[in-house]
Amino acid sequence: MESVQRPHRENLIHWAASRPEVLVLSADLTSSCEADGFRDAYPERFFSMGMAEQNMMGFAAGLAREGFFPYIHTFAVFICRRPFDQVAMSIAYPNLPVRLIGFLPGITTAGGVTHQAIDDIALMRILPNMRILECGDATDVESVLDVAQAIDGPVYVRMLRGEVPRLFDETKPLVFNRARVLSQGSDAVVLSTGICTEEAMRATTAVRERGLDVGHLHVSTLKPFDDPSVLEAIANARRGVITMENHSVIGGLGSAVAELMAEQGIGTRLVRLGLQDSYAHGASRQYLMREYGLDAMALVRALESLLTGPLGLTEQDLAGVRLETMRQVDKTEDL
Amino acid sequence: MEEVGIQAHAQPQAAQIRSVADAVRRRVLEHTLNNNGGYLSQACSSAEILATLYLGIMRLGSSQEPLVPRPFAGVPSSDNPHAFTGAGYNGPKAPELDRFIFSPVHYALVLYSLLIELGRLGPDALDAFNQDGSTVELIGAEHSPGHEVTAGSLAQAISQAGGIALARRLRGETGRVWVFMSDGEFQEGQTWEAFAALAYHRIGNIGIYVDANAQQCDGPMDAVMGIEPLAERLRAFGAEVHEVDGHDPEALAAPALGSGERDRPLVVIARTDPCRGLEQLRERAPKLHYVRFKSDEEFATYRTLLETLRQEAC
Ligand SMILES: Cc1ncc(C[n+]2csc(CCOP(=O)(O)OP(=O)(O)O)c2C)c(N)n1
Fold first, then answer.
1. Distance between CA B102 and CA B141 in Å, rounded?
2. For a tag on chain A, would you pick the N or C end, based on fewer CB atoms within 10 A?
């Protein structure tokens, strides 16, 4: 399986070429957020705002009121936590078309608790007018800007940087409010987002070989959350639903699915994989995915508990179907 | 080097501080070579500031923590009685002793290296740096050696230090609170809110050392977002401000001496050079924030440089 180096960096340059109304604002993380190519290509459309995220949100709001489309680039934590009030009042309330591009989702960084966005989806979901998109592979990354730009109002994009696997056909772009159906199955359905989708693909491949009839959908629109294909998959899942997200189970995908199921009166079990109401700490992605139960084995265990009891699958069995994309993370990263 | 107890801080030993600072540079360079990456320019700029704080300014007791850092014991919560902070490496808490609050925690490698040179951490403590399950984190957090608060979302530590200083004043303690900050933190609004509050509440038991290396992630600060004239801005906010050569231990220590009670925060702006002691680094400017060597040739050059520095130190 292919992986792509810095897909956002290149894509942003090409994509913005014909869109003079698109601006980039950065808070001293320009290369770390792959906006350096844009800065060098279109210096007149790039604005360095210093390490001052609250103020940056206000500037973006003002620019958006005047007809520009500001693309904020910084780490997700520095979009959703410190300047939350500015995002809520200056941007979300007036429904301004500011695009918030947030990097280092969840435990993808060794930078520890201050750099790990485990609550960003939750924070953005509670804001009226905000729409939320999350990328799970290079094709998502390359097509998400088109989707964001077509939205009338603020958008939060949970972005991937660096080496990104290509899980989905290049010719099949991310579609707003439409999950990617990766496999059909009616015993249980797995809904995954972001980097968890790759893990879920490993697990579902392995359990299918053991005869389980498990469906799998990759969700990239987290708000709104009324995709008919998601509802249908949940309604058809005879014995339960599993959500898997690189985020707290409170407020993200798991919560959105729980709300949907309750409102639709779908009375089946729901297992939410994700950070179980805990902060994390600085360590490698693989280590943290295992520690917090975000990896393929955690999903196998969840399926076992829902469907069959022990399947006897080992790490080796999962490694056997491992997609050759996730390299040992380069831990010496730019933060 | 032997463990340093409570400092007689009237006469900082400039030569000793310089040699500790140079040892910190060498250790950070060695680590950067071995791990192919590190916050090396921060060691170059801040080594004398941090060494002066520990050896010539702060009144700290002996470390309370093991030489080999304890592994991560889980995040703080009501269910986790095992969570701890790294403050014990700076000695016990006592009314007459000072406290150290480390703010730009991407400088963690520099602080760990200094703690090793001071004997507060064992010589192999960096083996655990950025390892899974370790507290010797890449970006320090409150469980990391020498750290007391979680500060990696920058410009939050100064306010927390203000609260600690206020609490100490309320309790009538004589020990002071020392904060180490980077200049990038003066772009955040919170820093200025903190200084307004420190002045308004006449908090004089706090001293802030700023590594003014004029660098940040994107490059030179004046190409990202200027903060000058920093001294005048801070004076206008009610602080007592000194601007000194940040590589001169005596100049660094002088503003902190004197025992009279103060009624406003003390700020020492340490003007520093991000390539100090490693001339070679200048070739990489303006990309100095995180140093990663690219070619075998570059590795060889820096290895030779490290050898030379080691020999010079003997
Ligand atoms: C609130 C916040 N925004 C952004 C960052 C990401 N970041 C880490 S270091 C840094 C700036 C580096 O400049 P400075 O603090 O002066 O340190 P130095 O250049 O000396 O390394 C930034 C923007 C952060 N840690 N916290």
1. 10
2. N
Fold adopted by B14-313: Rossmann fold (3.40.50)
The strand pair at B219-220 and B215-216 is best described as antiparallel
| Chain centroid offset of residue B149 CA | 13
**pLDDT tens readout for residues A23-34:** 999 999 999 999
The predicted model gives A32-38 an average pLDDT of 97
Domains of chain A: 2-166 (3.40.50.970), 180-322 (3.40.50.920)
Q: State whether residue A32 sits within 8 Å of chain B by CB.
A: yes
Instruction: Say yes or no: B139 contacts chain A, CB-CB below 8 A.
Output: yes
pTM, whole model, 2 decimals? Answer: 0.95
> What are the domain boundaries of chain B?
14-313
Whether A276 and chain B come into contact, CB under 8 Å, resolves to no
Mutate to test the pocket of ligand 1, among A26, A28, A103 (most ligand atoms within 8 A of CB): A28
Instruction: In whole angstroms, give the CA distance from residue A330 to residue B78.
Output: 34
Contact between residue B219 and residue A334 where contact means Cβ atoms under 8 Å apart: no
Structure tokens at A319: 């490694």
Q: Quote the mean pLDDT of chain A.
A: 94
Does the pLDDT at position B144 exceed 70? Answer: yes
Q: Which residues of A touch B132 (CB under 8 A)?
A: 283-284, 287
To the nearest whole Å, the CA of B32 is away from the closest chain A CA by: 10
A49 lines ligand 1 (CB under 6 A): no
Q: How many percent of chain A have pLDDT more than 90?
A: 91
A327: pLDDT confidence band, cut at 50, 70 and 90?
very low
Q: Are the C-beta atoms of residues A133 and A94 closer than 8 Å to each other?
A: no
Q: Is A281 on the interface with B (CB under 8 A)?
A: yes
d(CA A175, CA A227): 11
Query: Which chain A residues are within 8 Å of B138, Cβ to Cβ?
Result: 110-112, 282, 331, 335
ipTM of this predicted complex? Answer: 0.94
CA atoms of A199 and A126, how far apart (whole Å) = 28
pLDDT tens sequence across A293-326: 999 999 999 999 999 888 888 888 887 665 544 4
Report helix, strand and coil shares of chain B as percent, to nearest 5: 45, 10, 45
Report the distance separating Cα A136 and Cα A192, nearest Å.
9
Q: Which residue owns the Cα nearest ligand 1 atom 10?
A: B217
Closest among A224, A140, A215, A225 to A175, alpha carbons compared: A140
A205-227, pLDDT tens digit by residue? 999 999 999 999 999 999 999 99
Give the best residue of A54, A289, A332 to mutate against chain B (max B CB count within 10 A).
A332
